[in-house]
């Protein structure tokens, strides 16, 4: 997605240790028009798969998921990391290590919002190690639904998350709108795309 | 906003102590089409005020703010409650008591995303005590910008937040898409509207 790559080139900063600062466009400040385009681009890729529902994780997955849900006209549910006072009834709970926080985080979804026998598309902002995405996928399986694809805004392919998902048995389409193949030596190198 | 009130009537639950469970429509599961309508309704109300930028707070303010930003074609920034590893440089920091968590929470915005001399519209999911909204408004003043309005999805008018904002000197338009005037005795009573 050219508009996204152009923004990352202009505004992204390599903070070292594989940490990409893109908070001017994705996870602190948001450009609504770019986000609409992101949702539409992800929707185009997955539309043929008869998506019933989108699952993501708070916080920065919410807006890309929302915009994809708008384009596909399906409900979106986001996993909470802490239990809100309004969360009642049974929940699906999975744990994943946080890349940026250095600790394990809980992911919780009320069972009522993850019904069985659905085609679930998982959306997130980043595909890095793939651990969060795998935790979301385990949740969908626990709910007796099917993960039919994974869509992300930015993939850091040098972290190998795509292969780890394949090795974990998720033989599903995985689509990234921008793929960064290296952040060595302070650079931000994009994979050849499209 | 009739569609919103209908959904709250059908799905909202009064959990006692003024806690309204609307997580099937606003803060866990999201209906993208309803959210688009919410953004458009808030945009219609504030469009004449020459909004430069929208400020909200994570987590459940993000989607209504995003959808309003989409309709107004302005950037959105959301206050973080914890400092992400990607947050560098000076920040504006305010503290507000959380209604649902029973503790004070920090609200942090990178100074780079809250520039001076802007017309800032504050959007959130709820107006209850108004403490979070006041903290966001203080942040805008610290940034030497102007709060030109406050838009919320649901106002719980019985908590008096609107009056507290007036008393704190915020003589600005405040607009709610659904106003709940009482949650006494397990009920959910809407104010007469429109």
Q: Can you describe what's shown?
A:
Two copies of one chain form a homodimer. Chain A has one domain: Rossmann fold, CATH 3.40.50.2020. Chain A has 194 residues and is of the alpha/beta class. The mean pLDDT of chain A is 95. Strand 5 of chain A pairs antiparallel with strand 3 of chain B.
Number of strands of chain A: 11
Q: How far apart are the first and last residues' alpha carbons of chain A, in Å? A: 8 Å
Q: Which oligomeric form is depicted?
A: homodimer
CATH topology of chain A: Rossmann fold
List the helices and strands and how they pair.
The structure is a homodimer of 194-residue chains.
Chain A: H1 2-11, E1 13-14, E2 20-21, E3 29-30, H2 32-46, E4 53-57, H3 62-72, E5 76-79, E6 91-97, E7 104-110, E8 119-127, H4 131-142, E9 146-156, H5 161-167, E10 174-182, E11 189-190
Parallel strand pairs in A: 4-5, 4-8, 8-9, 9-10
Antiparallel strand pairs in A: 1-2, 6-7, 10-11
Helix pairs in contact in A: 2-3
Q: Summarize this, please?
A:
In chain A, helix 2 (32-46) crosses helix 3 (62-72).
Task: Name the features.
11 strands; 28% helix; Rossmann fold; two-stranded antiparallel ribbon; 6-stranded mixed β-sheet; homodimer; 31% strand; 5 helices; 194 residues; alpha/beta
């Amino acid at each position: 997605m050219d508009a996204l790559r152009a923004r990352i080139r202009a505004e992204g900063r390599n903070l070292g240790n594989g940490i990409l600062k893109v908070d001017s466009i994705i996870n602190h400040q948001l450009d609504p028009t770019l986000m609409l385009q992101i949702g539409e681009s992800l929707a185009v890729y997955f539309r043929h798969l008869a998506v019933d529902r989108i699952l993501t994780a708070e916080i920065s997955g919410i807006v890309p998921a929302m915009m994809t849900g708008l384009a596909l006209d399906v409900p979106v549910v986001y996993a909470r990391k802490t239990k809100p006072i309004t969360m009642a009834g049974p929940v699906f709970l999975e744990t994943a290590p946080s890349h940026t926080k250095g600790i394990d985080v809980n992911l919780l979804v009320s069972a009522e919002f993850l019904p069985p026998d659905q085609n679930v598309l998982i959306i997130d902002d980043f595909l890095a190690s793939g651990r969060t995405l795998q935790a979301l996928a385990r949740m969908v399986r626990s709910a007796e639904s099917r993960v039919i694809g994974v869509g992300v805004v930015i993939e850091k392919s040098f972290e190998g998350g795509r292969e780890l998902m394949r090795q974990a048995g998720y033989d599903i389409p995985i689509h990234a709108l921008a793929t960064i193949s290296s952040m060595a030596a302070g650079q931000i190198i994009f994979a050849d795309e499209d």
